[in-house]
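ok so for the tutorial part 2 we go from a plain amino acid sequence to predicted structure tokens. step 1 is just haveing the sequence, like this:
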Amino acid sequence: MRSLLVRRPSQERRSIFWLNSSLTDTSKTDTSNTSSANIPTIAVSPAPLSPQSEVQPPKVDYEKPSDDPQVPCSSFSLPNGKKKKCNSATLPIDRKEANALERTSRLQQEKLTLAEEVKAQKELVWLLHKALESAQLEKRACAEFLAAEGEQERLELLRHGERCAADLRYQVERLKRENEALQRSLSERDAHVIELQSNIKLLMEKNQAKQQVIVKLSDELTECIADPQRSISSASISKQTFRQMSQELDSLKDDIEAYKTQNKFLNSEIYQLTKLWRNSSEQEKSLMVKCAYLEASNCQMESRYLGVLRKLQDTKLLNAQQRDTVRTLIEDALQENIKDVIKEFDEYGFKLIPDYEVEDMKLLSKIQALEIRSNNLLQQDIGDKSLLARWTQYLGGRSPDDLALSPELKGLLRWGIPREYRRRVWSWMVRTRTKSDRERHPDLFQQLCEKSLTTPHPASRQIQLDLHRTLTTNQHFSSPSSPALQQLHRVLLAFAWQNPEVGYCQGLNRLAALALLVLQNEEDAFWCLVTIVQSLMPQDYYTKTLLGSQADQRVFKDFMAEKLPRLVAHLEEHNVDVSLITFNWFLVVFVESLPSEILLKVWDAFFYEGTKVIFRYALALFKYKEEDILKIHDSTEIYQYLRFFTKTVTDSSQRPFNTNKNRILFSVIRFQEYVSRKIC
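step 2 — the prediction. this is what the tokens look like for a chain of 680 residues:
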């Protein structure tokens, strides 16, 4: 870098961005003069000049008499002392062009020199930026090191840094080895493909040549059979020649038979190879299933091991040494990143493993990740594929408008809709429930959006405040500048104008957001919200009084007292009001309460069967975790557990539809109406 700052002795110590105004003006005048004379010019970029060039800058002027002593003067003296003017046309043209070319080359050389210096300065700036970044990182590390209290904490920081560096080096080496192995396998496959292509090309050429010979001989044979005398006389074939042709024909027939035999042999080989390939494919598939089963078993064993460690961590019967041992085992178990076990987000942008607020919940998060991984491995080859095949068979050959309510569709919806067909089926169910409104007002959504732009709604401020609180853990709504937030804003404003009785209620933003994620269309999401509020949910569910929501809470308490008496008695003993937890479940249909996989399956059945699905799943959740809740004997801990226990449910195969034990809601709607009248 020091060498870049050193200038040549003939140059002044000036920046490469210095500009001399006099030179600029001179270059402008020279450009105008030379352009009039049709001589090419080059703009002089600012650069360090020699002392001579600064005193007298170069000028190119062919209209005025030249002051350069090397150029012949414009007049000469006569013997009588008088001067006679010379004609400018008699000046040597070659001398002028030589001077112009010399100046042009000199200016180009200076331009190249300046470009190289600018490039060197840019490289210097880049190096300084890199040095500044490394210095900032070092400063940050030093600040963390100095902020630690005591030598032991600083030593732990240093050890942590060394461990991180060692892990990174190990990962780099592993990735290098994998890259080399992949490159070798790729080169081998490329060589094998090239060899096969060359063999195929050679066989095609041989086949084409043989086909031509066969066609030619067939034509000749046809002519001979048609008129043997004419063909023989016209060709003047002697007996010897005819005999040779017959021998050649026999030999060709023998070759054809040989080729047929060879073709049969090759076909049998191809059949055998195909059979071997199918067997190997089946073996590979069975091995993959076995590997998935073993990996799922490993995940289950590891999750059980972590569960035992968690119980040991919570117990108070261990001494100090045993607690240190348990703490060390937990730290070793948490060294593996959760992202290596399971991907962080699903196809709709939902976070698969929630970020728990308590630091001690990291162990629970790891256990949950292992359970999700185990369930996915066990279901991906059997459950998901069979369900996808059933939906493919049901929807095959049907248009979106041909779907109809049927027991078969109801059973499929209870098992859940595959991601490939969920948007199509949801759109059909929404269109079915809003068909009359859409026929009366086909352009309703566009009209409401235009009205929202011209007239501010009273609830627009509250909608704007709730936008940034909507699905904060989802990828599509986590950024303030996300396009999904603007789409959600338009949908909520349009619904507020469409339903003035409800307007806007907190909770509608989450319903509309989930509809946007699945349907991927603003108008479809708007009609989906209309379907939920005006068709699926009871009356006054989202009004200011929330009468429908309160009625559902009383209904649910009665069902819990009937079906879960032990749990209800336990909650009443510790003065726990379960409606503080379940009210939000019913209001937003479990959005942000259940994992995304189970949440979407709840909505699949909810669009078809209505609110009784919410009751069934709520009772199933409490039944699923009843024993765990009964073990807690502190009201604060019970509330804390109820706040997040739904996110720990990982097995979506357990459904509250398939047993008679959970078929308890045969009179839910009638009971809801009765409680609503009682509240009023």
